[in-house]
């Protein structure tokens, strides 16, 4: 098995219009999906910094000014890239127009 990373971006537009019950149901779908891919997810902290050349601080968080904000990520194992993509296809982020970037983690370098 190889290691992969899903990077989640976008999909925030529909959240503000949800009732508490709809939000609860959506979060339950996230939990079910994560269990399905047998992934161990680690949310990102809101605070952080973007560092540029020479160590110059480009941005202090939070990073709401970016169009491609990383909303979270999940580390998982899959047979190959096609398998990792297949597992991502019913991710709840797609319900609100978000994306999931699928990347293999290089372990031998």
Q: What do these coordinates show?
A:
It is a single chain. The protein is α+β, with helices and mostly antiparallel strands and 109 residues long. The protein is 23% helix and 29% strand. It contains two helices and six strands; from the N terminus they run E-H-E-E-E-E-H-E. It has helices at residues 20-36, 81-88; strands spanning 2-9, 40-41, 49-51, 57-60, 70-78, 99-104. Strands 2-5-1-6 form a four-stranded antiparallel sheet. A two-stranded antiparallel sheet has the order 3-4. A hairpin with a 5-residue loop joins strand 3 (49-51) and strand 4. It is flat. The two termini are 17 Å apart.
The main β sheet shows up as: 4 strands, antiparallel
Model regions low in confidence, pLDDT < 50 over at least 5 residues: none
The count of β-strands is 6
Binned, the helix content reads 10-25%
Beta-strand fraction estimate: 25-35%
Number of helices: 2
Overall 3D form? flat
Task: Compose a concise summary of this entry.
The chain is of the alpha+beta class and 109 residues long. 23% of the residues lie in helices and 29% in strands.
